[in-house]
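Quick one: structure tokens for this chain, please?
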Amino acid sequence: MEFAKDENVWDVHVGREFPDTQRFVGGSVEVWSTLTADLQQSKWARSTRVLYQGWLSAFLMFCAYCEVAPLPIEPDILSMWITRVATLYCFSTVQIAVSAVIGFCELNNFQHPLKANPVCALAMKGARRVKCGASQRLRKALDAQFVLDIWSMLHELRKNGFDSIVNKRALAFTQLSFEAALRGGELCRLKVCDVIFIACGPACGLKCKSHHDSDVLLFVRLHKTARDGVAKVIRLVAPSHAPVIGGLEVSAVSYQGKTWLPFLRTCGKQRDSRCKQTFSSKACCDVCPELFPTFPKTRNSVTRAIDISAITEAFKKFAVLTGRSPVGYSSHAGRIGSYSGCTAGGCVPKKAGPGLGWAGKSNVPEKRIKRT
């Protein structure tokens, strides 16, 4: 058994009351078996299963190359696998790759490979200590000058008649990721009802007033459960003297209010009348469309939220078009660049640490500052 990439019934109802299964399942052994298998898979979120399956496929290919069966785990094979990954990737990636193998063993009722084979655990400890793979220091930031260059480059493309939906969407999430310091996964999960202009209040999108000079509240809500953790609320301030390029203000508030949200409304993607989201809601909305959806070529195709890979691809494309090397840019580039700008003048106060993502006392801000 491998990781299931598709969303199952448990994923759909996570954090919510499960329907009355007995009514439509009854005593069907096959259906109960399927529900049990799906429940086992639901130990991991769907996004985690997709990530693990990618690494597991690579491990299975490695086992085939070595002409050994993947299960039970051969200590020497797993140790060599850890060595191969450790030479190319940072230790956090090594942990993900090995976690995929551990989950594979659990799904097939085999022992934890690191606990059953101390030599494999030694390889992991060695990888943690030496850190010889790729370093996270190579990850580049989406800094302020890069953002201005993107706006100028897209303005030149528009003047020459190249104004695509993909570029509009990319500019919208690029500016938002930089100003709100959002990760790629947080951008993908945003819904239309998560952008609230303060002048309108909670009914923004249903009963709108003027958005002129209004700040924006951005709700980064939870995607797995409404019971664990705290949803993040970010206030984006409407600038009084924002740079203007091609008649557009370089501002996430302005671009969302004057360009992107009106464009989505012309496509029929606006806040649903059934939406019950409030300022205190933690879970993502089930009825409103995505803030950054896909736009299929065929009319009958189903739209969905963009993937994290689409954000990374956009940042790399912008790097090439503005004369930069695309190496090192990822979906976290906006978040890294935003915090780099905040801390460029020196260390921030310790009280600001949690707001900048530094949760623990041992994780001091000096270690997280990336100067741009």
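DSSP finds 14 helices and five strands in the chain.
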